[in-house]
Amino acid sequence: MVSKHQLISIELDLHYITKPSSLSENAPLLIMCHGYGSDENDLFSFASELPDELFIISLRAPHRLQPFGNAWYAINFDADQGKWSDDEQAKESRDKIAEFIDYACSKYPVNSNNVTLLGFSQGTILSYAVALTFPEKVNNIIALSGYINPNIIPDDVATKNYTNLHFYCSHGSADQVIPVEWARKAPQFLEALSIDYTYSEFPVGHGVAPQNFYEFKTWLINHLTN
Predict the structure, then answer these.
(1) Who is most buried in 25, 52, 167, 212, counting CB within 10 A?
(2) Tens digits of per-residue pLDDT, 66-113?
């Protein structure tokens, strides 16, 4: 069994750390995707407070930043376009995460029909994209402090089957990094596709308040048995 202290690298250019499940087989799988400028240790701090039956994997984004941190895709700043995202890099990372789900389900004693993505900020944007592009690979999505980027999801979303998906979405009403107005578009988008979701706001900035953590933890526990 892999130790949670061991950093693992695979051919998908992804590094990750794990917290094994208390179950010896068929464990629910939780994959964490951190935000821009962070690493695999960030969201992993939640792991000890989450249900023991979860097999938890925290990924490190593939693009190294200087002087430290990592990103799923570049965010650039220039005079002409202001702040803009590299959507092609984002699509590449979206597909790497989707491939990693298959890899994890083949390598570890987990239930491929009980997969949760937990993202923060840029990791949330990618989690939305993975679920909406590859709905057959995931069941639950915890989307913290992010938004849906329509440029990195398929044009034919209206034709896909999303009946197995459940979203928990939350955002800080005082978020200074990603405006809350961007996050507020998600409920309308998900509702139009008849996707089950919960949306909450908390009086914080770009972060996860304690009450936010306990709410999504309760939501996750309730959805692990669905």
Answers:
(1) 167
(2) 889 999 999 876 545 456 789 999 999 999 999 999 999 999 999 999
Tell me which residue of 121, 146, 141 sits closest to 131, measured CA to CA: 141
Interatomic CA distance for residues 128 and 211, integer angstroms: 22
140 in Cβ contact with 51 (< 8 Å): no
The confidence score (pLDDT) of residue 112 equals: 96
Report the distance separating Cα 40 and Cα 60, nearest Å. Answer: 5
Average pLDDT, the chain: 92
SS3 137: helix
Residue 207 per-residue DSSP state:
S
Q: Return the bridge partners of 201, or none.
A: 171
User: Residue 112: which H helix or E strand, with range?
Assistant: strand 110-120
Nearest to 224 by CA among 104, 120, 121, 118: 118
108, 56 contact by CB (below 8 A): no
Helix spans in the chain (H): 41-44, 87-107, 122-133, 180-183, 185-192, 210-224
In the DSSP assignment, the letter for residue 186 is H
Q: Residue 118: helix, strand or coil by DSSP? A: strand
Provide the token pair at 25: 């087989």
Residue 138 has pLDDT above 80, yes or no: yes
Residue 158 one-letter amino acid? A
DSSP 72: S
